[in-house]
Amino acid sequence: MKIVYYLPSLYISGGLERIITFKANYFAEHLKDSEVYIITSEQNNNEPYFKVSPQIKLIDINVLIDTPINQNKLLKLLKYPFKYLLFKSRFKRIIKEINPDILISTLRRELNFISSIDKKIVKIGEFHISRFSYHSYSIKTTSLIVGYIKSYFEKRFIRNINSLDSFVVLTEEEKTFWPEINNIEVIHNPLTINPVTKSDCNNKKVIAVGRYAHQKGFDMLIEAWKIVADLHPEWVLTIYGEGDDEILKRLIDKYNLHNSCLLKPATQEIVNKYCESSIFVLSSRYEGFGLVITEAMACGVPPIAFDCPCGPKDIINNFKDGILVKSEDINELADKICFLIENENIRKEMGIKARKSSERFKIEHITMQWESLFEKLVKNKTINKD
């Protein structure tokens, strides 16, 4: 079986890049008689951030549309028609040369034309965020013109998804947001770590992990931590991430939290950092899944998470292997952090249950679902062709 993944690049340390690399590596090394390709378009000679199996064939078609990030927007718009046609031409040519059984899209601009490529190829779309945070769906407007344009792109997006053989979302909650889709499947993200050690939940440390972006809600976490730090000044919150941290630094300055709230860069040693911690907090305004929750749980760290769309309620069994908090409720978040700080036995028991619960996200369980989907779709293609 030949499997092709497409995503813009692999040099970014994002969740999408991590998950695609991890799954592709597993298929290349464990799926019998498989050939796995990853096609990119904006790798631009950069090294992949995550280790790629030598059994995977990497192909970059080298059409820079979205990079550099700081390019002039007007020039980007003027160049776009030419660049898009070049991207489409090179993409279709590479697919024709590979002649895969399975083509997996991460639902970028290739979605506009992949259904027209060789009808015998199974096309699957992977959706890694939530519908209401995706491009036009996130736009709020009272303008009739903007509203018309928004409606056009949303209808085209739905039409393109329905033309695929399957549309895979990450959570049962997310599935309910797509009533127009008739080919939808739910497959969770797999754990990308397999820790041999675990936290004993004794250290007076709380951990959060993610990009320094509005989505991740670290501003709300710091507001909550001010309440926690006043009651438990001996505990320390460390946030591991990357990006623009100026807003977060100003909040730390405002509340004089320099000794108890630390901003640290993203690290390849994140498993050790989980295992050194006793509580994990996810303060996101929205998620596609919340992979960091499952990682913390696998390390025996009980999670506390805003019950945001989407992911936390699919992962956490409330007050059994973690705690769900009303979305964006800063006071409740602080209260639940204090609850686990003040109740050591509950914290430790919850950490044990979290580690056990995380086993359902192991790669071997998740890839079995993917293999089953591949086999079903390929079989359907064969039957329909005959």
How is this structure best described in words?
The protein is of the alpha/beta class. Helix content is 40%, strand content 15%. It has helices at residues 15-30, 73-98, 144-162, 172-175, 218-231, 246-254, 270-275, 291-298, 312-315, 330-342, 344-357, 363-385; strands at 2-6, 35-40, 56-60, 102-105, 122-126, 166-169, 184-186, 205-209, 236-241, 261-265, 279-282, 303-306, 323-325. The strands form two sheets. A seven-stranded parallel beta sheet has the order 3-2-1-4-5-6-7. Helix 5 (218-231) packs parallel to helix 6 (246-254), helix 5 (218-231) packs across helix 10 (330-342) and helix 8 (291-298) crosses helix 11. It is globular, with a radius of gyration of 22 Å. The protein starts with a strand and ends with a helix.
Question: What is the topological layout?
Answer:
Blueprint: E1 2-6, H1 15-30, E2 35-40, E3 56-60, H2 73-98, E4 102-105, E5 122-126, H3 144-162, E6 166-169, H4 172-175, E7 184-186, E8 205-209, H5 218-231, E9 236-241, H6 246-254, E10 261-265, H7 270-275, E11 279-282, H8 291-298, E12 303-306, H9 312-315, E13 323-325, H10 330-342, H11 344-357, H12 363-385
Parallel strand pairs: 1-2, 1-4, 2-3, 4-5, 5-6, 6-7, 8-9, 8-11, 9-10, 11-12, 12-13
Helix pairs in contact: 5-6, 5-10, 8-11
